[in-house]
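Lecture notes, continued. The same structure-token format from the folding unit now serves as the input rather than the output. Read the line below as a description of shape only.
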């Protein structure tokens, strides 16, 4: 049996895509390899969001080419493929810098993998590239997404029309599209039938979801959440990533009424300065963001928030940066992801004057992260002594250890047998650090 190995970079959408790519390969008769060294087909699923992520692809490709040569010395052939956002943005670069790559597919064309693999045989020595924004939806051509995992991702929306001036997503994932309601429900039911107890609905702008129902009527994320809530056996629902300006009152009501909806929301603010938000082309001010948070808290006082931040956006002054710190102090995020602004070719911000020096970016990032981590650590420490329901998703580093997630997306380690994998277990939290919790099964 031929074997594949997929290495995934970037966001949860890429993790989801890799699963779907794996299902295409399984239908073609491939099995999963335990390492690239044992794989006849190696695929890198790439991320283009920041320069560092994109460059990583080329260093990894160098290592993969070495593996191919080692395997060739043993008489084994290896096919190398690159998929994902770097391909969409840099297909020619890949063919030039890594000519040994057999195929390169953008994020919207991986359903064409069977045809592409057939073409490679005919076009040895050439990289087969497909970076079209196709008229058809890849989802119509993929095998049904099944999973025996306790926690599964489900992409409901893809792409983005917001055009934040720093961001490559509209160019790599295309314009915003939503999958039809019935298709999403069918996938959700199949996942739950396979053992999934938590579904995380994914989209680059998941809360601007507007898929059509069976009657052709456009429906919102709130409608979809209510429908998914009706699936028996499903215990937890999450959705990510949301755009602050598109949080509707109807969606806020979901946090009041849907008990399965976890009390954790990732709502990226990016900057606390209205001047910077405007330059970023964000459709909200920091005041509007805070109002939305207040309404959400009123709907569910137990909600915890996380966010993304960019420091050192072109033109960001010390006062602008201070405004970001101020919002952090007001909200007290329980988790956050923060980045130095990365200049991305083809985006408007890359051409803006007043680019910020690297050392200033680094200093601001350090200050921001210190503050963010202090809130995160406090929140984690407050959990110590409490009993929390944890969905165990994977084995830990040591034998006899499992790792899971609390309702607030905290990682929790516990000494537990593998029979508890993919189950929700009540755990008493015993220790907390900034990034994880430890605990013991209750009872
Ligand atoms: N530079 C730094 N961070 C970025 N992000 C998106 N584009 C850039 C960029 N050019 C961050 C944003 C976004 C997260 C996924 O990545 O904070 O929310
Ligand atoms: Fe990276 Fe964005 Fe592509 Fe996800 S959608 S892989 S974050 S560039």
């Amino acid at each position: 049996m031929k074997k594949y190995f997929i290495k995934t970079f970037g966001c949860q959408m890429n993790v989801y895509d890799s699963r779907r790519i794996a299902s295409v390969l399984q239908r073609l008769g491939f099995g999963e390899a335990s390492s690239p060294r044992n794989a006849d087909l190696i695929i890198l699923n790439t991320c283009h969001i920041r320069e560092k992520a994109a460059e990583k692809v080329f260093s990894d490709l160098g290592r993969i080419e070495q593996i191919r040569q080692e395997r060739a010395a043993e008489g084994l052939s290896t096919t190398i493929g690159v998929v994902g956002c770097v391909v969409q943005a840099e297909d020619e670069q890949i063919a030039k810098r890594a000519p040994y790559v057999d195929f390169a597919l953008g994020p919207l064309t991986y359903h064409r993998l069977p045809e592409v693999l057939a073409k490679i045989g005919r076009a040895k020595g050439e990289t087969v590239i497909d970076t079209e924004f196709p008229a058809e939806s890849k989802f119509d051509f993929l095998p049904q997404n099944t999973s025996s995992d306790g926690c599964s991702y489900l992409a409901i929306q893809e792409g983005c029309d917001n055009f934040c001036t720093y961001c490559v997503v509209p160019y790599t994932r295309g314009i915003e599209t939503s999958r039809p309601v019935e298709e999403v429900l069918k996938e959700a039911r199949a996942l739950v039938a396979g053992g999934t107890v938590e579904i995380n609905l994914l989209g680059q702008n998941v809360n601007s979801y507007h898929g059509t129902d069976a009657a052709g009527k456009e429906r919102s994320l709130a409608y979809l959440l209510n429908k998914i809530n009706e699936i028996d056996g499903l215990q937890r629902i999450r959705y990510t990533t949301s755009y602050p300006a598109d949080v509707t009152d109807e969606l806020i009501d979901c946090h009041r009424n849907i008990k399965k909806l976890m009390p954790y929301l990732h709502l990226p603010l990016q900057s606390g300065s209205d001047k910077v938000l405007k330059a970023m082309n964000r459709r909200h001010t920091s005041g509007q963001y805070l109002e939305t948070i207040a309404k959400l808290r009123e709907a569910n006082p137990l909600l915890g928030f996380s966010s993304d931040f960019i420091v050192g956006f072109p033109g960001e002054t010390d006062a602008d940066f201070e405004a970001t710190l101020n919002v952090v102090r007001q909200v007290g995020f329980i988790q956050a992801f923060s980045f130095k602004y990365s200049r991305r070719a083809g985006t408007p911000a890359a051409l803006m004057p007043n680019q910020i020096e690297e050392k200033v970016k680094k200093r601001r990032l350090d200050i921001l992260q210190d503050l963010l981590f202090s809130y995160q650590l406090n929140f984690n420490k407050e959990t110590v002594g409490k009993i929390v329901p944890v969905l165990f998703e994977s084995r830990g580093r040591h034998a006899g250890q499992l790792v899971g997630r609390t309702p607030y997306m905290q990682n929790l380690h516990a000494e537990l047998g593998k029979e508890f994998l993919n189950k929700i277990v009540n755990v008493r939290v015993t220790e907390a650090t900034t990034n994880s919790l430890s605990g013991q099964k209750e009872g």
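Point for the exam: Residues 49-50, 166-167, 268, 270, 308, 310, 339, 341-342, 344 surround 5'-deoxyadenosine (ligand 1) (CB under 6 Å).
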